[in-house]
Amino acid sequence: MALVTLGVVRGLGRLPSAWCPPRCLAALTTRHDKRHLTPPTMARQASTGTNKTKIELYYDVTSPFSWYAFEVLHRYKSHWDVDLHLKPVLLADIIKTIGTTPEMLRPKNPAYHLEDIRRCARYFNVPLRLEDKTYETVTGKDSLPPNLFLTAVDLLYPGLLEQASRELWMSAWSKHEDITSDEVLAAVGLAAGLTPEAVAEVKEHTSQPATKQRLEANTKELIELRAFGVPTIFTHTKKKPSMFFGSDRFHLIARDIGQTWKGPEPDAAPAKLASPAGEKKKVVLYYDVISPYAWFGFEVLTRYQAHWNIDLHLKPVLLMGVGKAAGTIAPAMKPNRAPYMTKDLIRTAAHYNVPLKMPEDVFQMMFVKGSLIPSRFLTAISLLHPSHLEEASRQLWLAVWGRDEDITTDEVLTAAGLAAGLTPEAIAEAKEHAIQPAIKEQLRAHTAEAAKHGAFGVPTILACVGEKPSLYFGSDRFPLLAQELNEPWLGPEPGALNARL
């Protein structure tokens, strides 16, 4: 899932620095002049295997999600036997160049966005601390000075780029320091292993043409690769690099490079959580069958009903209604998103073992025909034959996203109802009720309810734990949901043999 953090675009004012959706010093590469390096650091020489899989991480230190991706990739370097290339970029310039408008970048639910940052920090075990003004303070800064500093480090002392990047994130997001100031940059350099002389050398090079050109080249390169935010990760296992956006696609990256995803800390012992006995925890899924990501969320939650101590409530809504209430712009309408989303859907469907097949005309299906008719049909079933709602929903997804059928037609609705176990009489009854005021009002009520809880898209999941329900958006937050429920996350198919993180 893509998420939004705020940054500064020079000439445009404050704009987000990551969009909707972690340790040891690196070895030094050879440099002719090593007089500024401390002996322990100099002793660590790099060795790059020729058969390693190349992975590139493009990042901006004003983005907390970039920090999560950075730490995870470094933890997995030896486990996956990869050659990791770090590339600082100016996200603000990427946003400006691809023509994104401020309206597209604004978080639709700022409170959820901040809570998601906190949850991810806990999940990834990254020491990020958000105080009242941390988010606005860090993301309101121009990221040019710290990224020029990192680029100079990369040119002069490439073996220290990893730790210098980590120290900058620590300064900004843990210590709440101004990473645009000379004093903080100097402290970062020292903490990363540079001597005072080396720090001075790096700072001097930040104003040199070669440093500026390298940062501009990294940024331009990412733009030409049709990226739209950070972190952006490229794997080089095929003729053409594969792009992954965000800090929530590591399971897909592992699949792409033929490796295993073992959770955010591959060396940590698996958490042993015992499902608590007693009252089940209520979990609500707001969904629209027009959304393939909602299908993934639906299948995972229904699979976990037998493994988690939850009481799952399915509530059909109108995605367009939720989006209108929140002022959301469809992801596919954002620059560079549509081509990436097509690939992401195919990868995610394979990961979740969902038989998705891309429709021939997605725009016609989603934005012209829409989901009003099937959503009313499901709402009628939920009131008349609630035990059939799960399977009726599944059959509609199979029809539209599995066989490219028109789920607004009577024929397809009837076939879905029959496949769900309804009799012809029950289907006729549901169709008749679908056009009645009570059903229309129920669908509107569920949609308004989702919006009231802060939803801005689907799938939206509400975990009713404690005094206040917790909101989760997307089909990539199940590890965080499991953490909230104090249940084990066993991957997309918990009942499968050798289910793992």
Automatic annotation (TrEMBL):
<dbReference type="GO" id="GO:0005777">
    <property type="term" value="C:peroxisome"/>
</dbReference>
<keyword id="KW-0808">Transferase</keyword>
<dbReference type="InterPro" id="IPR051924">
    <property type="entry name" value="GST_Kappa/NadH"/>
</dbReference>
<dbReference type="GO" id="GO:0006749">
    <property type="term" value="P:glutathione metabolic process"/>
</dbReference>
<comment type="similarity">
    <text>Belongs to the GST superfamily. Kappa family.</text>
</comment>
<dbReference type="GO" id="GO:0005739">
    <property type="term" value="C:mitochondrion"/>
</dbReference>
<dbReference type="GO" id="GO:0004602">
    <property type="term" value="F:glutathione peroxidase activity"/>
</dbReference>
<feature type="domain" description="DSBA-like thioredoxin">
    <location>
        <begin position="55"/>
        <end position="257"/>
    </location>
</feature>
<feature type="domain" description="DSBA-like thioredoxin">
    <location>
        <begin position="283"/>
        <end position="485"/>
    </location>
</feature>
<dbReference type="GO" id="GO:0004364">
    <property type="term" value="F:glutathione transferase activity"/>
</dbReference>
<dbReference type="InterPro" id="IPR001853">
    <property type="entry name" value="DSBA-like_thioredoxin_dom"/>
</dbReference>
<protein>
    <recommendedName>
        <fullName>Glutathione S-transferase kappa 1</fullName>
        <ecNumber>2.5.1.18</ecNumber>
    </recommendedName>
</protein>
<dbReference type="InterPro" id="IPR036249">
    <property type="entry name" value="Thioredoxin-like_sf"/>
</dbReference>
<dbReference type="Pfam" id="PF01323">
    <property type="entry name" value="DSBA"/>
</dbReference>
